[in-house]
Amino acid sequence: MSPLKKRVEFRIPISPTEKFFSLVRFYNFALRHLHTPPYRDARLSVVVGDYCDLDDVRRKNKWSESFNVTWERVPDEVFAEFHWAGTANWRLCIPAGEADVVILSDADTVLLRDIDPLLSELPIQEPAVRGHMAHVQPPLGEGSTAPSPTCPEFWPWLFKLFDIPWPIVTYRYSMDVSGSLPECPAYFNLGFIALNAKALPIFSSEIIETTRRVTLATDSFMRCQIAMTIIAYRAGINIATLPAVYNAANDLDHLRLNELSIDQIRVLHFLRSDEIDRGELQPQLIGNLLSRHLRNPANIALQNLAREYYESFR
Predict the structure, then answer these.
(1) Of 209, 231, 222, 228, residue with least CA distance to 140
(2) Helix segments in 144-222, DSSP class H
(3) Would you say residue 282 lies in a domain?
C-alpha cells in the first residue's frame, strides 16, 4: 500500500500546561504544513495526564477545533501508579480506529519533512514496530536488582527474566561515541516510534504489567522504553531500526555520529536546551526564540519553522 493510502495517526503525551499546549500546537502546524495526505488530514491524539480536567484542556486549546485533533485523558488509577510514564504508555491503550499506522511522538519533536519512505516500508499484514536506537544505555534506579547496563550481562539478564530468547541481531546505541558499550536488542528512543494497527493491541494488553515488572527489576527512568523492547521481542513482532533521519536530536554529536545533514532530517527531536528553550514556543515568548543567534544547524531549522509558525497566527 502506498504511503498516500495508509491512514496515519500521531500520538503525543503531555501534562496540562501552557508550555505543553504550545508544543502540541507547533507540532500540529508542522504536520499540516506538509499539505499532502496522509499528513494534512491525519488524526493527532493528545494524551493528557496529571488528573487533568479535559473540558478545561479543550477550552484552552480552541485552535484544535479547526483540525483533526482529539484530547484523551489518562485514567486516574494509571497516572496514580505510573505518573508521567503512565501518560506515555496510555498512548498504546487507545484503539487504532481507522489508522493503519500509529506514530508515537514526544512533544518536543516536529516533522520537518514527510515520512513517506517509512510508511511505504512498514508492513500492515503482520504486527510491526520501527524506531531509532536510544542514544545510550538506560539508567538504573537505586532499587534496581539488575546488572549495570554498561556490562554485557544487562540485556541478557533482562531477557532471561522475561523468558525471551536472545536475538540473533543486536545493535549499537546511537550515541555510543567510543563504541565501548555492549550491543543490545532494538531499544528505541520514544521520541518517534512507528507501529501498525496489528501491533497496537499487543502493546496495549501488555504495557501496564510489563512496565510494572520492569520498574521492579530496574527502577529505571526509561522504564517505558525498556518495556516496549520486552513486549516486542516476547511477542515476536516484526522489528527493525530506523536511521537517525526519523529521530534526529538537536545534538551536534548525534548529527555527526549519524552523518546527518539538515536537509536529510525528517523528524527533529529538539530535546537539547543549550541554545534553545522549548518553552519559548509559547506565543508570548516566541519572539525570544526568533531573535536569538543560533549556531547549531538543527536549531536553526527549528527556528526557521517557528518563524513560519509565528506568521501563521499573527
Answers:
(1) 222
(2) 154-161, 200-218
(3) no
Specify the pTM: 0.96
Q: Is residue 279 in a domain? A: no
Give me the sheet containing 8-14, strands edge to edge: 69-73, 43-48, 8-14, 101-105, 188-196, 128-133, 238-241
Predicted pLDDT of residue 4: 64
Is residue 258 a part of any domain in this protein?
A: no
pLDDT tens string 261-274:
999 999 999 999 99
The count of structural domains within the chain is 1
- The boundaries of the domain holding residue 171 are 8-249
Q: What is the CATH number of the domain that holds 72?
A: 3.90.550.10
Each residue of 110-119: pLDDT tens digit? Answer: 999 999 999 9
Query: Please, are residues 179 and 173 in contact by the beta-carbon 8 Å criterion?
Result: no
Return the C-alpha cell found at 69. Answer: 485533533
Whether 20 and 106 have beta carbons less than 8 Å apart is answered as no
The span from the CA of 53 to the CA of 57, in Å, is: 6
Q: Which of 95, 81, 314 is nearest to 216 (CA)?
A: 81
| Residue given cell 493527532 in the structure block | 44
Please state, in angstroms and rounded to a whole number, the distance separating the CA atoms of residues 283 and 199.
38
Distance (Å) of CA 149 to CA 141, 157, 225, 293: 11, 10, 14, 38
Comparing C-alpha atoms, which of 30, 49, 137 is closest to residue 93? 49
Q: Hey, what's the cell of 243?
A: 536511521
Work out whether strand 8-14 and strand 101-105 pair parallel, antiparallel, or are unpaired. parallel
Cα dihedral value 200, 204, 208, 213, nearest 10: -50
Average pLDDT rounded to a whole number, residues 252-259: 94
